[in-house]
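FW: tagging you since you asked about this chain on Friday. Here's the raw sequence from the shared folder, copied in full. Didn't touch anything.
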Amino acid sequence: MFTGIIETLGSLERLTPSGGDVRLDVNASGMDLSDTRLGDSIAVNGVCLTVTDLPGNGFFAADVSRESLEVTTLGRLGPGDRVNLERALALGDRLGGHMVSGHVDGVGEVVAMEPDARSTRVRFRAPAALSRYIAAKGSITIDGTSLTVNRVDGAEFEVNIIPHTWSLTRFAVYAVGTPVNLEVDLIARYLERLMLGDRAAEPGGQAGDLSEAWLAEQGFPNHSGSRD
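HL: got it, structure written out here
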């Protein structure tokens, strides 16, 4: 588990294909790796990866599976690209952001950026299937950074990036069209699954099966009508 509070900006040293997978060698010189061991987890742009090599001098390596390459932006990185880094949460650490699993739900993209006082307002477009999990004033993880959603309009949503976050994350390299890793709030995903009840165990049972009529059958109150 992670918090979505980025510890440092690293950079990709090498991306080496290997049997359909990829090995990432990451320069994490801004991060204290003195107590990091093989098998530990580090989030790279919001993707939970397992440390497979520690060659020293602030570097670590991790293998990225074909599945992760297909559903994240990691396969689009090149040498020198900046990456957000966070080590896994330890018991007793402060939870400054929100609970983040490091399991990316989909890839979105930047659709607009504009100054907003001392902050920068950034608008993203999420995959349609994820839009139902994104709510105004809710939490979302973008390239591993925990952020609060300001506004939602269909599959598009806005966040404000304060100067501190801008300077310590890879937001400074964003432009319109930049692809980003998105992880929606854990609570929203599990709540939706729980609401399916027994239907969750049926073949093909999914959140799209939820309807107002079905919810009424399960005893959920209907507040859509007028009150006397």
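FW: The CA atoms of residues 37 and 51 lie 7 Å apart.
HL: agreed, and Helices lie at 66-71, 163-168, 186-195, 212-217.
FW: great, closing this out.
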